[in-house]
Design a protein that fits this description.
Elements lengths: L6 E6 L4 H9 L4 H9 L1 E6 L1 E4 L2 E4 L3 H10 L3 H4 L6 E3 L4 E3 L19 E9 L10 E7 L11 E3 L3 H9 L15 H28 L4 E6 L1 H9 L10 H4 L2 H4 L2 H19 L5 E6 L2 E4 L2 H17 L8 E2 L17 H6 L7 H9 L15 H6 L8 H4 L9 E4 L5 E5 L15 H13 L2 E2 L7 E6 L16 E5 L7 E3 L3 E3 L8 E4 L1 E7 L17 H9 L15 H9 L1
Parallel strand pairs: 1-10, 1-11, 7-8, 7-10
Antiparallel strand pairs: 2-22, 3-4, 5-6, 8-9, 11-22, 12-21, 13-20, 14-15, 15-18, 16-19, 17-18, 19-20
Helix pairs in contact: 6-7, 6-10, 7-10
Length: about 550
């Protein structure tokens, strides 16, 4: 079946379906509401396949690659932006080229000469051969892990010359405690949305595209940076929100995006199909503390019983209050001031002294100050501070942005491996038991939803396997204190970015061939590309893991036209 109607697809990065549904029902997002009312809507729920089972998945960069390629990570081998070298015990995370290279599997819109395509700022994509049209990446976006480039090469410089550089690009860091940062990010997002809308409109008017696809990275920034000022389920909400005086800044940002969507739809051809989608959502951030800081300390204490390095707390006392003041001016520095010191005088001195006196190793941990001064990759993340100890540990936590990642220090694989292959299963089981007993130090709720092994055999060296041996999937509990009957208490620790990712996304579609009475099939982010191809009447590649979500009622209305 062939379609002559063009497709306009807009990806709202990390726009949470629960918030979209709520704000649509309250009348705050009229343009999204109209598209939803005139078309069909469904939530998406993401999971991926590991060698020993599947689990829900909320990691930004792999999800966008799943959308673009139609392939799951076990096929592409792209699980994460962080890479680990077992011969050096070093990790890296290239902030520009840390995404997928699209050499083995190209974006679904690389359709050759038969279709004219415009792709603008689709997150975690690259300029790729086989796209007949224009491609622009890296004009804006939230820490995009892809380069700034275009096809033709002069197009991006022309856009920058006309609209200027994007004010948010690689600068949003979720600094919730800084009033100046709040003022900067809200104004910068407003300008970024306005410029993005105009660029999209200009591109749409340039020629009649078969497919126009664009991303809005601003919704990602709004969620990471302003969630605590918007949603009452965030632990910091009662301490930081000012809705009575300034309104809801996250909602205000979404309203700007909604107006931009209205402008783009108005610039599109009257017979265009319009799709809005999000590959994942956003909620109160639970993974920054649990995966970046608390898990490394948990595994440290597992390896060195009776010792504590960061965040020592007394499990026999009520949990202290949430830390609401960032006295060190940065999250890494705030965490480092929680380094264990038994002497109260020294502890007080280390809390308030100048950072130049805090550059030495403590308990085998690297101080973040020299790492930050020397621009060591991921030096700001607490997991990296433990890296000098990794060769001496049976297992250690790798830096991670979403799920927790644990690597077994295996003989015959890791340079200084100390776990024999025949001990691998026992070590994995022992760590798993410790993890399943972890509780939120405030509510007493269990924290770990699932622990997944990534290998069927210890020395499996398939290069497309994830680098961690254990994946820790957390319950969505935003906590700053962890209690364990095995290792004691860790925390409280200062919160990092207010918003964190959820596995659910959404898809909305309307247009001449869409029957509003139809439904989408249950789907995942990996199905979005196949759905767009189906709507275009283009062939869905056989290697796709994704499937079209357009159900039979849709097909019948299309055939009847």
């Amino acid at each position: 079946m062939e379609s002559k109607e063009p497709i306009v697809a807009i990806g709202l990065d990390a726009a949470d379906p629960q918030l979209i549904e709520k704000w649509v029902s309250e009348g705050y997002l009229p343009n999204i509401s109209q598209i939803k009312e005139q078309g069909i809507y469904s939530r998406l729920h993401n999971s991926v396949n590991y060698q020993n089972g599947s689990a829900e998945f909320s990691s930004t960069e792999p999800l966008w690659v799943m959308m673009a390629t139609g392939c799951l990570p076990d096929k592409t081998g792209f699980w994460d932006t962080v890479t680990y070298d077992p011969q050096t015990y070093k990790v890296s995370c290239d902030a520009v080229y840390g995404g997928y290279d699209y050499q083995e599997y190209k974006p679904f819109y690389a359709l050759g000469d038969q279709y004219r395509v415009a792709a603008f700022d689709v997150p975690v994509t690259r300029v790729c051969p086989g796209v007949n049209g224009v491609q622009i990446t890296g004009w804006g976006g939230h820490h995009p892990f892809y380069p700034s480039e275009s096809q033709p090469a002069e197009l991006l410089p022309e856009i920058v010359a006309q609209y200027g550089k994007n004010p948010v690009y690689q600068k949003d860091n979720g600094i919730w405690w800084d009033k100046n940062y709040f003022e900067w990010v809200t104004k910068s997002v407003e300008k970024s949305v306005a410029d993005r809308a105009q660029i999209c409109c200009d591109l749409l008017r340039k020629e009649p595209w078969d497919l126009f696809i664009a991303g809005f990275g601003e919704t990602h920034t709004l969620g990471h940076d302003l969630y605590n000022l918007s949603q009452s389920d965030h632990p910091l909400y009662s301490h930081t929100n000012k809705i009575n005086s300034i309104g809801d800044p996250m909602l205000q940002g979404y309203q700007q995006v909604d107006r931009a969507i209205g402008e783009i739809v108005a610039a599109a051809p009257d017979n265009a199909h319009v799709l809005l989608f999000a590959v994942h959502g956003m909620g109160a951030n639970h993974t920054d503390l649990l995966s970046m800081m608390l898990l490394p300390e948990i595994v440290y204490r597992f390896n060195f019983p009776g010792k504590a390095a960061l965040g020592y707390g007394d499990i026999n006392k009520p949990a202290p209050p949430i830390i609401t003041n960032n006295i060190r001016g940065g999250w890494s520095a705030e965490v480092w001031r929680q380094v264990y010191e038994s002497n109260p005088i020294k502890k007080l001195w280390e809390t308030w002294t100048h950072k130049k006196f805090l550059r030495g190793s403590k308990h085998g941990l690297l101080s973040p100050y020299p790492l930050l001064d020397e621009n060591v990759e991921l030096g700001w993340m607490p997991a990296v501070w433990y890296s000098d100890l990794w060769p001496k540990m049976k297992a250690f936590a790798l830096p991670a942005y979403a799920d927790g990642h644990i690597r077994i220090n295996l003989k015959g694989r890791d340079r200084d491996g100390i776990v024999e292959p025949q001990e691998y299963d026992a070590v994995c089981a022992e760590i798993t038991d410790v993890l399943y007993r972890l509780k939120d130090g405030r509510s007493g709720e269990l924290l770990v939803k699932d622990v997944i092994r990534t290998r069927k055999s210890p020395l499996d060296n398939d290069p497309k396997l994830p680098e961690p041996d254990l994946i820790v999937v957390w319950h969505t509990i935003a906590t700053d204190v962890v209690d364990s009957p095995d290792i004691g208490r860790i925390g409280p620790i200062t919160y990092n970015r207010p918003g964190g990712h959820r596995e659910h996304g959404f898809l909305i579609a309307k247009g001449p061939q869409i029957n509003p009475q139809a439904k989408f099939a249950d789907g995942r982010a990996v199905d979005i590309g196949a759905t767009i191809l189906d709507l275009m009447g283009a062939e869905i590649p056989q290697h796709f893991d994704g499937k079209s979500l357009l159900t039979k009622p849709f097909a019948l209305t299309r055939e009847a036209k």
